[in-house]
Write a structure and sequence with these properties.
279 residues, Aminopeptidase, 2 domains, elongated, alpha+beta
């Protein structure tokens, strides 16, 4: 049995944390490797509390780590991982319990985790600690290329940044942590469009538009048919940026726009199960 000590992530450099994280992902279902610069950006974008985040060690050996996102009233467990040879010896449980304790100290009302579908050990661990599954989320990709469907008749206009942030704050659907308005504001490079259809339907699309990729795509239909609104907006997006690769995360399976994503050439990379523990 390992002797498990938990050390605040703030005691480590970004390079040390990156090395530890990548070791936990060598055989993971979805590896998602990081570098120090990308990890630093991740911490800023998702409001990671480095003091509350933790690295599990046994002497000089890193067993695993976990990061804690912290925002008023809520918390988020991210980048949880244990090095393969150290699994099933209590490090994962110790890290998650530490995240729970830290969240309570910060007066969070609940804590969230997203578990990759079919990761039975992780799902079992969180269930044992009282987490309940709330919904299933899709991670989608789309290769570069123009759209291949005929869009409905519409007018699509670019929205300014402040208006886009206002629309995001008024969403009817509940965003996951990575699509919360805080995350979008922190990430920057926001592009937004509003569509007005001939049949009276209307709605908007917000995404992150970087040099190489479109990501964080969010759709909301304000009035009318979500399929038609989705077609108008996604057609416009991929016509304007036909040379860009696309990846968008955490679209709920129940989202009414999901069929349109498929029509536009999106494919499912994998699924996550959102789990929540209320205090």
């Amino acid at each position: 049995m390992s002797t498990i000590d938990l050390i605040s992530a703030s005691a480590f450099s970004y390079q040390e944390l990156t090395d530890a994280y990548n070791r936990t992902r060598v055989d993971y279902m979805v590896p998602m490797p990081m570098n120090a610069s990308k990890l630093h950006e991740y911490v800023i974008t998702y409001d990671i509390d480095m003091k509350g985040s933790a690295v599990a060690i046994d002497g000089n050996e890193v067993l695993g780590l976990s990061m804690l996102g912290s925002r008023p009233g809520r918390a988020w467990i991210s980048r949880l991982g244990v090095v393969r040879q150290n699994r099933r010896h209590g490090a994962g449980t110790a890290l998650v319990q530490h995240m729970i304790d830290e969240s309570k100290l910060q007066e969070a009302n609940y804590i969230i985790i997203e578990v990759i579908d079919n990761n039975i050990p992780a799902h079992t661990l969180f269930t044992k600690l009282g987490f309940k599954q709330t919904r299933q989320l899709l991670v989608l990709g789309r290769p570069p290329g123009p759209p291949k469907i005929k869009p409905p008749v519409s007018q699509v206009r670019t929205i300014k940044y402040n208006r886009a942030m206002e629309l995001l704050s008024q969403r009817r659907s509940k965003p996951t942590w990575i699509e919360e308005t805080n995350s979008l504001n922190n990430a920057g490079n926001i592009e937004a469009f509003y569509a007005y259809l001939q049949d009276g339907s209307k709605g908007w699309l917000v995404c992150q538009n970087t040099i190489f990729q479109l990501s964080r795509i969010m759709l909301q239909t304000e009035i009318g048919d979500p399929l038609q609104v989705g077609r108008a907006l996604l057609y416009h997006l991929h016509k304007e940026y036909s040379k860009k690769d696309t990846k968008t995360e955490n679209l709920p399976v129940s989202d009414p726009h999901w069929p349109v994503f498929k029509e536009m050439g999106y494919f499912e990379l994998f699924r996550r199960n959102e789990m929540v523990l209320e205090f």
